[in-house]
Amino acid sequence: MRSFRLQRQSGQGLIEYAVVIALVAVVVILVLQLAGVSISDLYQSVVSALGGMGQGVRTLFATNFDEGLGAWSNVNWNRRSSGDWGTQDGLLNTSRFSGMVLDDFNGSDYVVTAYDVDMTRVRDQWQGANLFFRADNSANINGYSFRLQKPGPNSPGRMYISQWANGYQVNPSLAYQELPADFDWEGTYDLSVQVSGDTFTAFLDGEAVLTAQDDTYSEGTVGFFTNSGTEATVNSFEVTELP
Amino acid sequence: MGLTDSPSFEAYDDGELRPVEPEPSPPILRYVIGLLLALVVVLFAVMMLRGGGISGNRYGAISGIVVDQNNVPLSAEVFILSSARSVWTNEDGSFLLESVPEGEQLLLVGYISEADSYPVSITSGETLEMGVISIDTQTRETE
Q: Cβ atoms within 10 A of the Cβ of A10, count?
């Protein structure tokens, strides 16, 4: 005789499946962190491999300076207070030996470009203009820069990518190259840096000129600054996602 | 048939007894959850140990003297990369930077616009003597 007895059938609830999935995700994240893998870099790699999440390159910030400098803050580079910057006729007008960084921006990977940087020599020493990237907005800046610099009339001009710490530019630089003797230090140039993971590629008028690697700072804002021998105007400034 | 085996009224479905279902298989999913929880605990413990959170604080110190290219004592700021703590040199150019985490660090000696970097290896409880650090002040951009 068969035994007939009510048996409540116990199954596995959806909540248990959800808990398992969540725990698997936590374990994966912990293992990746222990292995030193950056989750954000991994995600970006996946997105890039899939051809991006949308169409074209997204602009993260762009200005032709018609709206003024409300989005910017003076940066205390070289441990000195910044100069007198303004906008006129759609151009950023910078004073010498001073700089500004973009407020309310904090990115990891991007391309930052200053277009039509028109340099004017105000003295024979320390000419040039520069970009900040992955920088903070602290009283003494931390981050990176791409620099065009000519120390003096008898010194070769150079460009380099440097790290900044506690308001000091760290020596030695991450990448360095002398510029030709006929480089026009009162010319007009597009300065750009592609910031991707721990690799930085600097561009001058669209041509890649320097590459450096460093993993000290993983994110930060962007900015522009002048050397003590140069005043400059900038036509526009843009930050885009990586191509 | 014992009383415990007697079917209850609920066992009847439309007047017919429903057959007894076999015992369900062991809750494997719950074992998996338990295993994953244990794994999470272990991984967190490993992270804490690697980060030195459980092992305790281990620090050393760095000392030296900073001078310029003419051997004149310099007023320079000395710090470790990615550390908020810094010290300034004394009138004779000497410095003592304490509470430096053990292991490989980058010592930075800042003067005016730039900081020269020196990779150092710090041992817990010991002071690394850097000796004389010379900085060429003529290469620094000034206003």
A: 10
CA A121 to each of CA A12, A186, A226: distance values in angstroms, whole numbers, following the listed order: 76, 6, 11
How far is CA B100 from each of CA A35, A167, B104, B122, rounded to the nearest angstrom? Answer: 25, 20, 10, 7
CA end-to-end distance (rounded Å), chain B: 105
pLDDT of residue B119 exceeding 60, the answer is yes
B75's enclosing H/E stretch is: none
pTM: 0.73
Give the rounded distance of the alpha carbon of A172 from its chain centre. 20
The CA distance from A75 to A77, in Å, is 6
Give pLDDT tens digits for B41-91.
888 887 666 554 444 569 999 999 999 999 999 999 999 998 888 999 999
Separation between Cα atoms, residue B32 and residue A37, nearest integer Å: 26
Tell me the average pLDDT of chain A: 86
A128: nearest CA in chain B?
Answer: B141
Residue B97 and residue B62 in contact, taking contact as beta carbons nearer than 8 Å: yes
ipTM summary value: 0.74
Identify the pLDDT of residue B55. 47
**Of B9, B36, B106, which to mutate for an interface test with A (greatest number of A Cβ within 10 Å)?**
B36
Q: State the pLDDT confidence band at A238, using cuts at 50, 70 and 90.
A: very high
The answer to whether A213 touches A198, Cβ cutoff 8 Å, is yes
Q: Calculate mean pLDDT across residues A177-182.
A: 95
Could you give the CA distance from residue A39 to residue A33 in angstroms, rounded to a whole number?
8
Of B1, B110, B141, the CB nearest to A126: B141
**Chain A closest CA to B124's CA: distance in Å?**
23
Strand A168-171, strand B114-122: pairing = parallel
Strand partners, A203: A192, A208
> CB–CB of A148/A129 below 8 Å?
yes
Q: Do A168 and B10 count as a contact with CB atoms less than 8 A apart?
A: no
Token digits of residue A31:
């293992």
Return d(Cα A110, Cα A199) in angstroms, integer: 11
